């Protein structure tokens, strides 16, 4: 029997779960299908997010023949079979998985068929196509990023699988507890394939009750997904609560709490949230109080990304401890938010003439750049002149904190320059 995730692949574009930025009404792929003006494309994103589903749905909606190959394992001969089918019977949509593994021989064979439109190539990859895919292929395709599915998207797909009597589990009497369902939607990191595989295993391996019901509880879901539900609630907010607690623990300099919450996130497999949140924390909460800590956070996140779990926990633990014990300052985020408030309130003003671009003929006649003073031509590489628009010339956004010697020096320099700038 084919796996549930395979059977539940959409047959038309309206059945696609998630990715509405691409397939929703009026969006680019939807428009291509509606007009039957398909072009070759590359879909890239994490596993289980719908790349194959989009290709299958496009084929089903357009009624074109649909073939699937793998760039790493299938041969040039397999590509020749697809090309011959396209020559004999018309357009073929070819889903080429792992397209970043396409070698030059296969690529050279494919290119003329992409040019004449007989083969509509849909390449699928988890790698960044701007780095991993040959420019010759890239230049002949449109590139679309496929995002991880939300818990709501996965819940919708699980409901469909439970209700569909033909392709899904609708012929069985399944009771899926709300906490078990929530666990499957929030602990698969946007990977629908993993959620459907776990659901199918749970249903097929659970004994029926006297009334023929298959009752899927949280412990069963945990066993079938092989992840423990460290935190669950009916609304699915607990995962984000842990992320929030993680940042607030670092901000509050509680090393043990920060390590605890990071361990919960890593144990659930959510490495991406940890890395992203650490970058935010470094610049939002430590910032100018300890700029080298921000640099070391970037290095730790880069190392974690290359290592993957479980080894990624090591550089991340080091930097979490450092961020917790570091002096803190939020003066950077406060400063930019203060500037943005002025922008949103309409306090903008015209760029002073002497700062305007003067790299074109006629700029001097307009007075653009004429009176600009080049700071490097003056002592200490500084000269007094107005940079802010007239209506904001006395604005001051940066308010320093004296939590470290770094920011004390920044404060002294900022105040010195501000006083010199405003001195009559």
State the helix count: 19
Q: In which range does the helix fraction lie?
A: 40-55%
| Poorly predicted runs of 5 or more residues | 230-236
- Overall geometric form: globular
Question: What name does the CATH topology of the largest domain carry?
Answer: Rossmann fold
CATH-level-2 architecture of the largest domain:
3-Layer(aba) Sandwich
CATH class of the largest domain: Alpha Beta
Largest sheet: 5 strands, parallel
Describe this structure in words.
There is one protein chain. By secondary structure, the protein is α/β, with parallel strands linked by helices. It has four domains: 4-145, P-loop containing nucleotide triphosphate hydrolases (Rossmann fold); 151-225, Helicase, Ruva Protein, domain 3 (Orthogonal Bundle); 238-325, Zinc Finger, Delta Prime, domain 3, CATH 1.20.272; 331-422, post-AAA+ oligomerization domain-like, CATH 1.10.3710. Helix content is 50%, strand content 8%. The protein has helices at residues 4-7, 20-23, 28-35, 51-62, 76-89, 104-116, 129-132, 135-138, 151-163, 178-186, 192-205, 218-225, 238-251, 255-267, 271-286, 291-307, 313-325, 331-344, 405-422, and strands spanning 41-44, 65-70, 92-97, 119-125, 142-145, 173-176, 213-216. Residues 230-236 have low confidence and may be disordered. InterPro entries: AAA+_ATPase, AAA_assoc_2, AAA_ATPase_RarA/MGS1/WRNIP1, ATPase_AAA_core, DNA_pol3_clamp-load_cplx_C, MgsA_C, P-loop_NTPase. This is Replication-associated recombination protein A.
Summarize the structure.
This protein has 424 residues and is of the alpha/beta class. It is built from 19 helices and seven strands.
């Amino acid at each position: 029997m084919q796996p549930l995730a395979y059977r539940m692949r959409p047959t038309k574009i309206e059945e696609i779960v998630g990715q509405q930025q691409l397939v929703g009404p009026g969006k680019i792929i939807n428009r291509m299908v509606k007009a039957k003006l398909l072009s070759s494309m590359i879909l890239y994103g994490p596993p289980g997010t719908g790349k194959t589903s989009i290709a299958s749905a496009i084929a089903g909606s357009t009624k074109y023949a649909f073939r699937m190959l793998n760039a790493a394992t299938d041969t040039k001969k397999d590509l020749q079979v697809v090309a011959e089918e396209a020559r004999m019977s018309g357009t073929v949509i070819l889903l080429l998985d792992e397209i970043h593994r396409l070698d030059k021989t296969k690529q050279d064979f494919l290119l003329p068929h992409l040019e004449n439109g007989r083969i509509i190539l849909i390449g699928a990859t988890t790698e960044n196509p701007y780095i991993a895919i040959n420019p010759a292929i890239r230049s002949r395709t449109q590139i679309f990023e496929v995002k991880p599915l939300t818990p709501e998207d996965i819940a919708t797909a699980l409901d469909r699988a439970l209700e569909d009597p033909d392709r899904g589990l609708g012929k069985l009497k399944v009771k899926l507890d709300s906490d078990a369902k929530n666990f499957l939607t929030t602990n698969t990191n946007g990977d629908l394939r993993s959620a459907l595989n776990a659901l199918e295993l749970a249903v097929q391996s659970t004994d029926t009750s006297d009334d023929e019901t298959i009752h899927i509880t949280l412990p069963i879901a945990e066993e079938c997904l092989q992840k423990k539900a460290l935190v669950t609630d009916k609304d699915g907010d607990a995962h984000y609560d842990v992320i929030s607690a993680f940042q607030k623990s670092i901000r509050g300099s509680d090393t043990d709490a920060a390590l605890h919450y990071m361990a919960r996130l890593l144990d659930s497999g959510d490495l991406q949230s940890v890395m992203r949140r650490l970058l935010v924390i470094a610049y939002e909460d430590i910032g100018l109080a300890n700029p080298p800590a921000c640099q070391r956070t970037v290095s730790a996140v880069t190392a974690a990304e290359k290592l993957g779990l479980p080894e990624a926990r090591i550089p991340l633990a080091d930097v979490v401890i450092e961020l917790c014990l570091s002096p803190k300052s939020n003066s950077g985020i406060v400063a930019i938010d203060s500037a943005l408030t002025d922008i949103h309130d309409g306090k903008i003003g015209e760029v002073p003439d002497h700062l305007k671009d003067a790299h074109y003929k006629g700029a001097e006649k307009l007075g653009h750049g004429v009176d600009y003073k080049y700071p490097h031509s003056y002592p200490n590489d500084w000269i007094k002149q107005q940079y802010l628009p007239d209506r904001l010339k006395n604005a001051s956004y940066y308010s320093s904190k004296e939590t470290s010697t770094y920011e004390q020096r920044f404060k002294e320099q900022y105040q010195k320059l501000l006083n010199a700038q405003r001195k009559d």
